[in-house]
Amino acid sequence: MSEAAKIAKVDADSALGAMTGKRYIKSLKDGREVFIDGEKVADVTKHPAFTGIINEMARLYDLQNSDEYKDEMTFVDPDSGVRSSVSWMVPKSADDLKKKRRNSEIWNQQTWGQLGRSHDILAPYIIGALNRKDLFSEVKHPKCDFGENLENYYNYCMKNDLFLTHALGDPQVDRSETAQNEQQKSQEDLEVALHVVEETADGVIVTGGKQLSTAATHANECYISLSATFARRNDPNCVLAFSIPQNTPGLKALAREPNSRWFGTWGHPLQNLDEQDCILFFDNALIPWERLFMLYDPSPMAKILGAGGGSVNFNFLGWANLCRAQERMKLITAVATMVAESIGVIQYREVASKLGELVTYCHVWEHAMEGVEHEAIESPSGQWSLGHARGLHIWFAQVSGRMLEILREICAAGITMQPSEKDLANPDIRQYLDKYMRGKDCDVEYKSRLFRLAHDLAASSFGIRQDIYEYWHGGDPSRNRINLLKGYDQSEIMDRIKDLVSRPLPHGVEK
Ligand SMILES: Cc1cc2nc3c(=O)[nH]c(=O)nc-3n(C[C@H](O)[C@H](O)[C@H](O)COP(=O)(O)OP(=O)(O)OC[C@H]3O[C@@H](n4cnc5c(N)ncnc54)[C@H](O)[C@@H]3O)c2cc1C
User: Which phi and psi (to 5°) does residue 209 adopt?
Assistant: First the structure.
């Protein structure tokens, strides 16, 4: 049996329960191939580009096992008796959904709404797919039952509380051609997309790239599938969905430059939340049969996407992204308000009005979250799902940039010109800092720390990456908006409009 098949099998029967910080860090010392800035990383848990985020994740895992949070963040699986993260709990009632909401709130409050790939992002993907296990089983293959694979995989992840990321899109090599004329592409271009090279007794051998995968540096496993853009492929060899450990032989991840390299104690308050992004290269990697969920035939995904990404059929986003956006909005609004207070500009009508605009976004989001919860329904499988939130996610992709723009406008030059920790410690200049860099009713230390937080959010390479993330992570917003339009039933009002424009007004004025 090959290495990859062994890796997947070794842990298949394990049930280690809710992840702890120590176990998480140990789990990443698995020989995974990660490259950064021209070098292969010997141990991701020791590399300065990754230790911040890895230690943050470990802290959260310890938190979920603490007496204070255990009941809110973990649950006992009724079938196996295993205690695991609430992220992996299949919601069977409206109360379960509430419990999941609280778990997501804690994860996001603890990480200030900055983690696009928190632990709770991919678990709902797998749970949502499990809800339509039947669709995956409809596609037949002599070597496995894809629906059964999904269920076994869910159980494995839940019982071991694994942290997953995903990769859906093709490398950004040549977007000029569409599925309709894919045949016209050169063989070299076609091979860029992840595809099956051959089948073996153990599984399928795949080669090709995937762009992007956030957190591939420090996730346990990566779920690979097709984004909505690439779901309708001509070449069946490119139709694949599977999940594999990050240390699968033949899988290499190239991480981008780190966004925070300031190692002071408070220079960049959000520096530990740089969650990294990777492009993945598969070079003849073996995907074991038991890890495949879709092969050659995209109909399960087409049916799921056709039924609406956030609908009861496939609620692959759950609470995590909603709670993350809520926390991020509240953070931007509060920092902007505190900055305005710290330099005495909150009294100005224009400034207060901009802050009020930020509050409108927070309010809309809070109301929408209540609505999504209110519209929760039970699916035929007995799984509970939130109401769909497709429009919400697109809306946030649009307003996130506007919120940061307002923060920058209120900070003005202060967002860049602040003393560093070492400047403050230098007695030769400290007297000037105390006098010229203090704020209204606040000292220079408080003011510079606050403005540095604003800088991290809206002006640093970290902040800009977060903004880019907001815009693109849910897929191309243009495509999403078009899909929203296609699925939006306007027939009732259109009929009334047709009626209005097709006859004289009942009480029309005679000329
Ligand atoms: C920070 C960050 C993190 C991410 N993390 C993940 C992750 O963890 N997992 C994951 O799977 N994905 C992730 N993504 C990828 C994300 O889903 C994609 O960025 C998004 O789907 C857009 O694809 P692309 O970047 O390849 O852009 P492209 O498709 O190359 O688009 C480039 C430009 O061309 C336009 N364009 C492209 N095709 C067409 C067309 N046919 N017609 C008209 N215009 C077109 C686009 O609108 C855009 O302006 C992440 C992205 C970012 C930025």
Answer: -115, 165
